[in-house]
Automatic annotation (TrEMBL):
GO terms for molecular function: isomerase activity. Gene3D superfamilies: dinb family like domain. SUPFAM superfamilies: DinB/YfiT-like putative metalloenzymes. Pfam families: MDMPI_C, MDMPI_N. The keyword RNA-binding does not apply. Residues 15-159 form the Mycothiol-dependent maleylpyruvate isomerase metal-binding domain. This is Maleylpyruvate isomerase family mycothiol-dependent enzyme. It comes from Nocardia fusca. It comes from the Bacteria. Residues 174-262 form the MDMPI C-terminal domain. Keywords: Isomerase.
Amino acid sequence: MTDTLDRPDLTTRLSDQFDALAELVAGLDEEQWRTPSPLPGWTVFDVLSHVIGTESLLLGDRPPARDPQAPDIDVKTLPHVRNEIGALNEIWVQRLRPRAGTELLDLYRDVIGRRRAALTAMDDAAWSAPSPSPIGEVPYARFMRVRLFDCWMHELDIADALGKRIDEGGPRGELAFAEFAQSLPRVVAKRGKAPTGSLITLVLTGPLARTLHIEVGDRARYVDAPATEPTVTLELDSGLLVRLGGGRVAADSALGRITFHGNADLGRQLVRNLAFTI
């Protein structure tokens, strides 16, 4: 697959993604802000708090002080916190939780305005420089595509929680999916344990429709024109695939929405092991 890290396009789409999140939550009442999201332990309010926290950290900001009236929680003891990144995310969520929804949205707009200015001020050397990220040390450009993917997934989380329909395709969705799809061969081989010599075909329908062929050899990789028939073909909606990969949908509950051709047992095994994001 093509690695899409063009700076003008990526920064434009990331800015568009920031706007999409703000538009999605604008006008919510306090009850809607506190609607549970697909992410364990987090409401709509908490999802946006997490985005604020990550973008604030990239600006060099520290989490706000704990409200004296709020409970003092060791975030590492929470069942949905599984690693150090999760603990850091949770600190921001916990510290922002006592605020009102309108106050949170104002803070989001302030943080995003400063992030846009910081991205604009970066030179090409900084854009290409190695940077720590959730997927290891990568060029800052790749990290920003990870940020686009993360914010796009959280847009889906909020929309699903509120029962709102959004456009999951378009330029933002394409770039976010490019980041998501880069991990799929490894996930199929390592987590799904697809056997060496197998060919996995994903026929995606919906807003990000496409056909992906993953060949499993010494390492798993995409192929444009496979030389053999697929070991298994999975036909499913693109939105379902990304929600499975994000752990937002339980695999067994989704099997009835997937059509399998070929080795269906392998197909179900792959679906049950698709969740890979933090």
